[in-house]
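Hi D.,

Good news: the full-assembly prediction came through. Inputs first.
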Amino acid sequence: MRSNIVTIIKKEFAKFFGDKRLVFTTLLLPGLMIFFMYSVMGDAIKSFASVDDSYVYKVSVSNMPDSVEEDIAALDFDISDTEDFDTVKSDIMDKNTDMLIIFPEDFDVLVTNYDSSDASQIPPNIEIYYNSTSTESANAYSLMLNYLDDYESKLANRFDINNTDKAYNLASDKDMTGEIFSMMLPMLMMIFMFSGCMGIAPESIAGEKERGTIATLLATPMKRRELAIGKIISLSTLALLSGMSSFIGTMLALPQLMGFETEAMNAAVYSAADYVLLLLVILSTILIFISLISVISAFSKTVKEAATSVMPIMIIVMLVGITAMFGDGAPTNTAWYFVPVYNSVQCMIGIFSFSYYPVHIIVTLATNVVFSVAFMYVLTRMFNSEKVMFSI
Amino acid sequence: MNNEMNPQEILCVQNLMKTFSISNKQRRLEKTNQKTKIAVNDLSFTAYKGEIFGLLGPNGAGKTTTLRIISTLLRPDAGDVTVNGMSVKSDPSLIRGQIGFLTSELKLEDCFTPNYLFDFFSNLYGVEPSIRKQRQKTLFKKFGIDKFSEVKIGNLSSGMKQKVSLVISIVHDPDIIIFDEPTNGLDVLTAKVVTDFLLELRELGKSIILSTHIFNLAEKLCDRVGIIIEGKMALCGSLAGITESKPLEDIFFDIYAKTVGENV
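Then the structure:
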């Protein structure tokens, strides 16, 4: 029995690795694509939000108060006095000027005389015009806002918060990596794994049915169970390789995408044990995906029909993956880990955020294996069914 | 072969029944309200060791269905088939190991070479590696595959593909060979190679069950024939006995007119 399973596995591998285009599009392309796409996206986001260091903001000011003049000049602003507000505003709209600041006349006096406990008084109002569609203008606005906020709090300073050079955020690189990875990776992993399985299983089962080659296999003395096991093992291994390619691409590009320096956030914070557990969860998830897609493919008459039938499941998998981004960490109730797909996502959240319980992983692995075996049994029954295999 | 005193039964088809459901679309096309179509209707016949038995009949008579049931790809609704004493119902896997089934509907994967497929199917049929090489060499040479043994199936001509399929179906040197329309789609030269090979196999003591609608072929090859019309056995016997008075084709037309009630 074992030798027939091995024969089928060898054949599936020979078929896959013999097709250079398939190897490239399934194994190399996903990882490369994700790496370049995410890196480019990360760079684009960074360059979109940042302004050249040597840039000098063009700012027009009316009634510049003495108290802030020096500080504002220190903000790298090229300041000009103006009373012609309409012209400056249209310059801002045309992105020729970055900002217009209108202080009330005698601002310093008004501020000194203002009593915040007197409800009848209206506080002096500074008007700042800017253009949010210009990165420079938006930056100048936020610099000015920060400065004025600081200035305002200095005027009535009773206490400070974190007003020294010390690092107050005690989150380590490890925590930050964990938080970002546990939010992003489970969903991405689920999608990569499912697409990997989708790219391989329908072709191997519905495709063989469509081309009439599976009938040749069914005419041999090999048991249907052996064919089902051989197919599922080989397809799962290939899907795992495809998923790994996407996973490596993501791990390498995610820090750039999220705007972190690679030194501050990297995959080295996870131990070998974490990776082994992750691999087990991934493997059991792929097993369940492959066996389910194989059953659907066996039902379908063509590869196209199989791909269409699998789409709704892909959507469910994506939705379950998204829960990682909104949930409050992995649930602690073990019952949740009996639900396939959901359990994999939650285990991955647990592993990435260093907060998993071994019992949850064990329940997840066991559940996924039980479901896969059940699907494998269904697949064997279908290989035995003349209605399914020889629809005449 | 058929004149032996006590011929050994190799295949026994008993009261075989097989019905297929008809799709709504098909019902509309055929203008019928029947939800099922009887493909094989109480069919019985016996084939003996060392003979070539031909199932004859027009298209849609039930020949292919019968061969598929014998090859255990389909299950009978009623009745039974025993191959070498084993029932298709209880021992399908054992039967598959003893027969070679060849039909144009069993395809080979385009991306593999004849060499690879010979090894692959030899593994599935459990052929010893020591025997395998010699058998491959002989068969490939006989059918002219040796020159194409490393060419992918997808790049072979359709005749060569069919030859490879034939060779693959007998990697395990089966005693019983079931052949659905052996010369369909082959040019005259390739068809001759195949028919000569069938005669050669008979000389080696193999039993062959084939289906065909080409009466000349049946006359050339078969020891005994069974004529199937609308799933029923209309006539079964030795070719010599049946064709004593008239050629096989004329006999068929007579039977067809009698059974279906239409003159041809």
